Amino acid sequence: MKKEDNRLEKSEAFDWKAEIISWIKIIIAAAVIAFVLNNFIIANSKVPSGSMENTIMTGDRVIGSRLSYRFSDPKRGDIVIFHFPDDPTGTIYYVKRIIGLPGDTVDIIDGKVYLNGSETPLDESYIREPMDPEPPARFEVPEDSYFMMGDNRNFSADARRWENKYVKRDKIIAKVLFRYYPGIGKIE
């Protein structure tokens, strides 16, 4: 009987210090993983306005890949998360579609977008509604920069309205891949 009592005492002995250290290790590991994911692999953004409707709705939360442009350049039509060029603090993120690539000339005439002197407007099946005509505008995209527009052109505070019209390559954070709230869906 004495042997059984001794084993029972050993199994009941609990090392609180070891348990607390174990939990601290788990919490630190989770924090490190979250930090690495959020700063080097993915970008998370909430879209506060209707400037990208119907592609991305007001209040949607999206995930972007920070790795998308590590080995390739952004492409026309990509939806990206970037630092707003008119924000000197660099803390405001915008989500828009790339329309003009480095070296492009973007002309907006009678509510249509023309690239590099083309007589045919850009095919933009993703825009919410035809753009209201506005005075003709020409944008010459500098090297290492991009020209961004929202899909809801009539209600988008995009590059047409910014003081600094172009987004530098190093200010693009991620390519938007999917929406995860309020529902899950791929973004194109």
Automatic annotation (TrEMBL):
PROSITE patterns: SPASE_I_2
EC main group: hydrolase
Xref: CDD domains: S26_SPase_I
EC number: 3.4.21.89
Bilayer-spanning residue ranges: 20-42
Annotated catalysed reactions: Cleavage of hydrophobic, N-terminal signal or leader sequences from secreted and periplasmic proteins
Single GO MF descriptor: signal peptidase activity
Main location: membrane
Pfam family, one: Peptidase_S26
The keyword Metal-binding is assigned to this record: no
Membrane disposition: Single-pass type II membrane protein
Ranges for domain Peptidase S26: 21-181
PANTHER family linked to this entry: CHLOROPLAST PROCESSING PEPTIDASE, SIGNAL PEPTIDASE I
Family (UniProt): Belongs to the peptidase S26 family.
Protein name: Signal peptidase I
Gene source species: Hungatella hominis
Origin organism lineage: Bacteria, Bacillati, Bacillota, Clostridia, Lachnospirales
